[in-house]
Amino acid sequence: MNAPEDWPEPIIRVQALSESGIPAIPNRYIKRESDRPISDDVADDVNIPLIDFSGLIDNGKDNQDLVSETMNKISEACREWGFFQIVNHGVKPELMDRAREVWREFFHLPTEVKQSYANSPKTYEGYGSRLGVEKGAVLDWSDYYFLHYLPPHLKDHNKWPAQPHSSREVNEEYLGEVVKLGGRLMKIFSINLGLEEDQLQDAFGGNGEDIGVCLRVNFYPKCPQPDLTLGLSSHSDPGGMTLLLPDPHVAGLQVRRDGKWVTVKPAPHAFIVNIGDQIQVLSNAIYKSVEHRVIVNPNAERVSLACFYNPRGDQLIGPVKDLIGEEACPLYQPMTFDEYRLFIRLRGPSGKSQVESLKSPR
Ligand code: OGA
Ligand code: NI
């Protein structure tokens, strides 16, 4: 199985459609009735857990109580929600704002400039407007930009936007910081799961730069009929964990919980962290990757930066032996992340069907 060289149909930029001022969205963005965002299904009085990370940042003070309290909160959020937001995480607020705003500027550059980075389903790197290659598929109301940061041999600055002029530099600095934070979270997850500090990272294929890190910047243009479509269809993230920088002005991310959709209300300068399919598999489903989706808005565009912290592509990922337990059995069959991701790249977002398909026969 291979990804095709090109898209099955001509690509239409959602932003261009939106800016053309059409009063109704084309049919190919209209979701089945059961997939449309209905307010009855939304739980608006709850939010995902908010965790203050300051106790875990080395500030020279020894405060073991605060450390264990914070670790426990993270443990509970991973088990109960698969999603949480963190504040006081050590990444500078100004850097977060700069990163988001260079991307907003990118999406407002002239079409010809953006087109020079147009992507293909082969690697997905560059400027794109669809996930999946099924002909005639119903599409999401968003454009995006996808790039690799790690491992070093996949990073190619020529595939990163050169404009705005500070963009590459800002992205380097931003991703460097987010990767450090991701590494810290990996240690926390590992300890919380009862493993050695580095065991989870080792299961990802090694320390340092031997993992996969990529950035997908999502751009959700204004939508004249937000009730009929989605900015991003329901999915769980295929990788290890995701660190998302949301738009501070416009909500849109919804997380599935007890049959309802919880709209995330981001705290100022928070990162939204969620467990991906690979950590669900490694933890033998002690931690679960949770379905989420994005709704769109008639009056406001939305920009978000999703940094995917993934295993090495060629690493076989199956349940960690220490987590299978004596009576329990491994729930999943091992697969490399490269192989796993190929399914997603061909089929596009499809709830949790992918990770479910790894279930061991019994
Ligand atoms: C994603 C994602 C959410 C958002 O990129 O996988 O879920 O708020 N993004 O854009
Ligand atoms: Ni996602």
Automatic annotation (TrEMBL):
Catalytic activity: jasmonate + 2-oxoglutarate + O2 = (1R,2R)-12-hydroxyjasmonate + succinate + CO2
GO MF annotation: an example: dioxygenase activity
Keyword field contains Iron: yes
Required cofactor names: L-ascorbate; Fe(2+)
Fe2OG dioxygenase domain ranges (all copies): 210-311
Keywords: Dioxygenase, Iron, Jasmonic acid signaling pathway, Metal-binding, Oxidoreductase, Plant defense
Organism domain of life: Eukaryota
One of the Pfam families matching this protein, by short name: 2OG-FeII_Oxy
GO biological processes: defense response; negative regulation of defense response to insect; regulation of defense response to fungus; regulation of jasmonic acid mediated signaling pathway
PANTHER family in UniProt: OXOGLUTARATE/IRON-DEPENDENT DIOXYGENASE
Membership in a protein family: Belongs to the iron/ascorbate-dependent oxidoreductase family.
Protein name: Leucoanthocyanidin dioxygenase
